[in-house]
């Protein structure tokens, strides 16, 4: 018996298959059970006190009203400088850089700016969970290119076969969440060949741009001139400065693309929290603040993996991001979702089942662990897992 009123019955969901995200589900379960939470991706340690002091300075200094719609000029200039230094590419701070309330907003704004009903959007899966809802809400049609363990490398012929006259946007994510896979310059060249002479835009989610391992460098799509002219490059300070709770990111795109991007951003959020923008503008002036990240996280990845040595899990070390995926085919054939729940409850380690990032929930028996945690926590989690 349902006591739904006609009013509620008329509420046809625009996202009928969407429930609560896996990140919320697993973090909540970890809290309830007291498990070590290696599920949702966020640092288990605090950001720099210097950054907090800078925010405090601007909070107390009266920087508490709306920021300009496109972002505080000093922060846009600092990002332009960082981008020029790091990738040798110039984006104009006035017309080509927009500050957003996290990468999530920037991704949504990009998809909304370019996808019309019926347009096809190419998505590499496993895919970060906010991509497909953004496509759906804009009437787009996701077209999946499925990447599989252990390499998750891209077969470019498969991608070519999926491109049609309706393809309007390709969504890229490097370094990749959840797999830690990183694009090579060959991937960039392959993508450029594929989109040449076609009316296809690209959104490149590069929120882990500063977290790459074993000497790898980040191949930002902006570094390829043919890709740059059609790409919205998305960044986030959440990953770079251990401030995921501040929700501050940005979009770099050529002027005409930024004009359309800003039309959406203007009515999604209008502008982004002011004192934090000023603080980040100051903090960005010291490149060491992000140059130390690869070594910092590689040590944690290696610590976690050293702890798993002798277990029945198998893995390829993550190439980037702060996630490590592991295969458990030698341990059990349980569905990954069930195992993630069971491990949280029984041994007190929460993870993310990678099937949730596939449209058809492909279960390759892989769990994702976030290693952005204190060393002692990582060692304890690895020990519990080793004894499985
Ligand atoms: N893209 C990817 C691949 C992510 O992992 C995340 C968050 N972990 C985001 C986007 C969202 O970033 P933000 O918190 O800045 O919105
Ligand atoms: N991006 C984070 C992850 O992959 C989670 C962000 C969120 O909770 N929405 O775990």
Structure commentary:
This protein is of the alpha/beta class and 388 residues long. The chain folds into two domains: 5-47 and 291-386, Alpha-Beta Complex (Aspartate Aminotransferase, domain 1); 61-287, Aspartate Aminotransferase, domain 2. Helices cover 40% and strands 14% of the residues. The protein is built from 16 helices and twelve strands. It has helices at 6-9, 22-33, 49-60, 73-87, 102-114, 131-137, 156-162, 185-195, 225-228, 237-240, 255-268, 274-283, 288-291, 293-308, 336-346, 375-386, and strands at 36-37, 97-100, 120-125, 141-146, 167-173, 201-205, 231-236, 249-252, 323-327, 349-350, 352-353, 366-370. The strands form three sheets. A seven-stranded mixed beta sheet has the order 2-8-7-6-5-3-4, sandwiched between helices. Helix 3 crosses helix 12, helix 5 runs parallel beside helix 6 (131-137) and helix 14 (293-308) runs parallel beside helix 16. The longest helix is centred in the C-terminal third of the chain and has 16 residues, at 293-308. The radius of gyration is 21 Å and the shape is globular. The N and C termini lie far apart (45 Å). The model has no long low-confidence stretch (mean pLDDT 97). 4'-deoxy-4'-aminopyridoxal-5'-phosphate is lined by residues 41, 102-104, 128, 173, 177, 205, 207, 236, 238, 244, 247, 249. The site of 4'-deoxy-4'-aminopyridoxal-5'-phosphate has 14 residues, from helix 5.
